[in-house]
């Protein structure tokens, strides 16, 4: 069903954003704790990174239909 | 909307009702309030009307009581008034006209019969009337002569013993009357003869008795006379004298008794003879001819009886005279004896009366005195004798004259009686002769009548023969003509029959042919019809399978049904084309129902609204957010009626969706699909599947409707109107 596609995409998107956010947060925490002496900027950075990646993924996913896919034709 | 309207209507209705209900009590109150004033006047009016009606009724009843005609009129005109009158006055008086007629009719018949009877039987009426009971006569007379005498009867209603008009009576009546007369005559005759015989018998008996008595008297007289003579003349010894005298006394008593008896018997006989005479006279007056010989015989008998009786009486009388003479003589003798005895007694006083005992006891003195007395007596007697001789002649003459007188008287009597007898004889002879002559005449008349009757019968026979001949000829002629007629008629009929038969046969043959053709065409048509029916049934089956769609899942694959259709219309190209035009998807997978598509549309709509701004150029996440915001903040009507023509500004997503919603709410899936098809961008992408499904359903439905229309058309074409 075409109408369910959007929904699925959004589900995917959210799931992905949640994961990335969590991962970013985690890595940030880790890096902050490990490398940067518990400064907040790596956590924020990591979370931002995660969110940004999620956003970008979401967007790409949602517009995938409109993006032209090209193929490199093999040379004969 | 409908419910709102309903509610509004109910409210309005309730209002109206309440309003009306409220209005009525006021009205009623108003009425009640005004009724009180006019109550008394209404009562007065009611009372007055009742009074007048009652007065009218009472007056009508009273007048009806007085005048029955009025009563009859009212009963006729007003229904149920007769019941009222009957209740009030009793049953109506009986109509006078009808009843009077009936007894009037019965009476004259009886009177007529009675008068008839009195007229006919001029015979011993008592016996005739009693023996012929009136009802026997009356019905016989009435039945046979009702018509001619009816008119006469009408006029005799009130008169008694009115002689009926002399009209010619029919033959049966005459014979009846004759028969009646004969019967009456015979009855009278029988009665007469019986009476005559009876009276004859009794008279004969009494006469015989009288005659016997008379003869007995005669013998008694004779005996007595003889005895007396003997007693006078004989010189019997004295002891026998007493017995003789006794016998004499007995004879005398016998004689007297016999005489008395004879007298009685004679009286009786005379009475009976008188009766007989009376009966004979009445019989003579009855004028029955047939009784004449009997009457004559009776008369003869009577006459002979009278004659005998007279003879005997004369005999008795002569005997009586003789006896008288003898008795006179005996008396004289007795007298003389007595005298002598007395003289003797005078002379010889001591001698007793019974001088028989004196025979041996007489003394000489007595004897001399007796002889002297006897001598004296002889002298006296001689003297008397001489005197007597002298006077003899005179005495004889006187006696002769006396005798003559007596003889004459006797002669006269005898003459008279013989004259009467002879007269009677002659009369009887005459009557006998008359009777004979009458009989002869009757016989002659009968023979003449017979001859006449014979002549008449001969004549009749001849006439009848001639008539018979004529009638026979006539009948033969008629018969022949009728036969001819019948024959021609019969021939005509048979010809007609033949013709009609041939016609019928031809007609039947033609009809048979027509029927055969019709049946053949029918067969063809029915075959067509059957096929069409099959097609229609299979289309219906297909239609039915469409209904098997559930809420979210499609119908059964339509393969089977379509296969059946294809089978059923193998030779029908149109149907085949149509059947093949059904999309493959519907055959293999089935189609969704309209309801499910409708339900799905709402999801589509929601989604399409949310991604309304997203298309190729705008598809970032921010745009998504904006689009979502727009969908939330944009208020619009959910359903908008689509215009007839679409303008370019109508191609907005929201508008399009509104139109589609409206259409789909109205059941127009096709229009909705059209609108949905106009969506662009992401909305389009979202609605893609739904549109596909809608298209599929629409296509299949169209084909099926075409098929069913075609099947209906074919069915209509093939079915024959009843």
Automatic annotation (TrEMBL), chain A:
One Pfam family it belongs to: DUF543
Q: Where in the cell is it found?
A: Mitochondrion inner membrane
What's this protein's name?
MICOS complex subunit MIC10
The free-text function statement in the UniProt record for this protein reads:
Component of the MICOS complex, a large protein complex of the mitochondrial inner membrane that plays crucial roles in the maintenance of crista junctions, inner membrane architecture, and formation of contact sites to the outer membrane.
Q: Give UniProt keywords alphabetically.
A: Membrane, Mitochondrion, Mitochondrion inner membrane, Transmembrane, Transmembrane helix
Question: Which residue windows are transmembrane per the record?
Answer: 18-36
Cellular component (GO) terms are: MICOS complex
* The keyword Transmembrane helix appears for this protein: yes
Subunit record text = Component of the mitochondrial contact site and cristae organizing system (MICOS) complex.
Could you tell me which InterPro entries the record lists for this protein? Answer: Mic10
The entry sums up its family as follows:
Belongs to the MICOS complex subunit Mic10 family.
The record gives the membrane topology as: Single-pass membrane protein
Query: Which superkingdom does the taxonomy of this entry point to?
Result: Eukaryota
Automatic annotation (TrEMBL), chain B:
Keyword RNA-binding belongs to the record: no
Which membrane topology describes this protein? Single-pass membrane protein
Ranges where the record places region Disordered:
113-182
Which portions of the chain have biased composition (kind: Low complexity)? 133-148
Indicate where this protein resides in the cell. Answer: Mitochondrion inner membrane
- Output the InterPro entries linked to this UniProt entry: MIC60
Any keyword Mitochondrion? yes
Which regions form coiled coils? 248-286, 364-391
Q: What keywords are annotated for this sequence in UniProt?
A: Coiled coil, Membrane, Mitochondrion, Mitochondrion inner membrane, Transmembrane, Transmembrane helix
Query: Which family does the record assign?
Result: Belongs to the MICOS complex subunit Mic60 family.
Q: Under which name does UniProt file this protein? A: MICOS complex subunit MIC60
Q: Which gene encodes it?
A: LOC107667454
């Amino acid at each position: 069903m075409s109408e369910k596609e959007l929904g699925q995409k959004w589900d995917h998107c959210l799931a992905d954003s949640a994961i990335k956010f969590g991962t970013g947060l985690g890595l940030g925490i880790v890096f902050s704790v490990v490398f940067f002496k518990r400064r907040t900027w790596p956590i924020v950075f990591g979370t931002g990174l995660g969110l940004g990646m999620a956003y970008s993924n979401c967007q790409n996913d949602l517009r995938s239909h409109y993006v032209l896919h090209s193929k490199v034709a093999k040379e004969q | 909307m409908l419910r709102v309207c309903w509610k509004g209507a109910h409210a309005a209705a309730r209002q109206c009702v309440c309003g009306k209900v409220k209005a009525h009590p006021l009205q009623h109150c108003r009425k009640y309030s005004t009724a009180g004033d006019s109550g008394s006047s209404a009562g007065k009016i009611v009372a007055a009307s009742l009074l007048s009606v009652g007065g009218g009724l009472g007056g009508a009843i009273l007048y009806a009581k007085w005048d029955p005609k009025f009563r009859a009129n009212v009963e006729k005109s007003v229904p149920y008034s007769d019941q009222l009158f009957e209740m009030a006055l009793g049953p109506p008086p009986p109509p006078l006209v009808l009843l009077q007629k009936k007894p009037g009719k019965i009476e004259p018949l009886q009177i007529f019969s009675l008068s008839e009877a009195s007229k006919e039987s001029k015979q011993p009426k008592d016996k005739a009337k009693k023996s012929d009971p009136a009802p026997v006569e009356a019905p016989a007379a009435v039945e046979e002569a009702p018509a001619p005498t009816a008119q006469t009867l009408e006029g005799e209603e009130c008169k008694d013993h009115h002689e009926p008009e002399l009209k010619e009576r029919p033959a049966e009546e005459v014979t009846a009357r004759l028969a009646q007369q004969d019967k009456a005559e015979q009855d009278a005759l029988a009665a007469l003869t019986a009476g005559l015989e009876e009276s004859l018998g009794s008279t004969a008996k009494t006469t015989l008795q009288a005659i016997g008595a008379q003869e007995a008297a005669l013998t008694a007289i004779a005996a007595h006379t003889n005895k007396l003579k003997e007693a006078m003349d004989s010189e019997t010894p004295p002891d026998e004298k007493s017995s003789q005298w006794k016998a004499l006394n007995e004879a005398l008593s016998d004689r007297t008794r016999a005489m008395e008896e004879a007298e009685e018997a004679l009286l009786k006989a005379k009475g009976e003879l008188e009766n007989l005479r009376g009966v004979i006279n009445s019989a003579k007056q009855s004028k029955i001819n047939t009784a004449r010989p009997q009457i004559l015989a009776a008369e003869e008998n009577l006459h002979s009886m009278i004659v005998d009786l007279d003879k005997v009486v004369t005999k008795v009388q002569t005997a009586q005279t003789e006896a008288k003479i003898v008795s006179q003589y005996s008396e004289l003798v007795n007298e003389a004896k007595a005298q002598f005895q007395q003289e003797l007694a005078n002379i010889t006083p001591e001698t007793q009366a019974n001088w028989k005992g004196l025979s041996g006891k007489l003394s000489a003195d007595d004897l001399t005195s007796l002889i002297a007395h006897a001598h004296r007596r002889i002298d006296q007697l001689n003297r008397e004798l001489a005197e007597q001789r002298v006077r003899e002649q005179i005495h004889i003459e006187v006696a002769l004259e006396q005798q003559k007188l007596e003889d004459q008287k006797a002669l006269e009597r005898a003459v008279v009686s013989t004259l009467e007898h002879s007269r009677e004889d002659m009369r009887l002879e005459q009557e006998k002769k008359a009777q004979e002559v009458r009989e002869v005449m009757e016989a002659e008349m009968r023979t003449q009548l017979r001859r006449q009757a014979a002549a008449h019968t001969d004549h009749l026979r001849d006439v009848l023969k001639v008539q018979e001949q004529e009638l026979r000829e006539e009948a033969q002629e008629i018969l022949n003509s009728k036969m001819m007629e019948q024959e021609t008629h019969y021939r005509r009929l048979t010809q007609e029959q033949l013709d009609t038969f041939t016609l019928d046969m031809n007609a039947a043959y033609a009809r048979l042919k027509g029927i055969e053709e019709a049946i053949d065409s029918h067969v063809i048509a029915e075959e067509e019809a059957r096929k069409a029916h099959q097609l229609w049934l299979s289309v219906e089956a297909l239609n039915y399978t469409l209904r098997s769609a559930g809420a979210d899942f499609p119908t059964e694959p339509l393969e089977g049904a379509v296969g059946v259709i294809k089978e059923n219309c193998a030779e029908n190209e149109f149907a085949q084309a149509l059947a093949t035009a059904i999309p493959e998807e519907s055959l293999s997978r089935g189609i969704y129902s309209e309801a499910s598509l409708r339900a799905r549309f709402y999801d589509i709509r929601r989604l399409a609204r949310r991604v309304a701004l997203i298309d190729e150029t705008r598809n970032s996440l921010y745009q998504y957010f904006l689009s979502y915001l727009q969908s939330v903040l944009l208020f619009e009507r959910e359903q908008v009626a689509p215009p007839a023509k679409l303008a370019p500004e109508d191609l907005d997503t929201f508008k399009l969706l509104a139109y589609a919603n409206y259409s789909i709410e109205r059941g127009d899936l096709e229009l909705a699909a059209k609108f949905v098809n106009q969506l662009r961008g992401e909305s389009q992408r979202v609605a893609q599947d739904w549109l596909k499904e809608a298209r599929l359903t629409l296509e299949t439905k169209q084909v099926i409707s075409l098929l069913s229309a075609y099947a209906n058309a074919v069915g209509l074409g093939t079915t024959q109107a009843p």
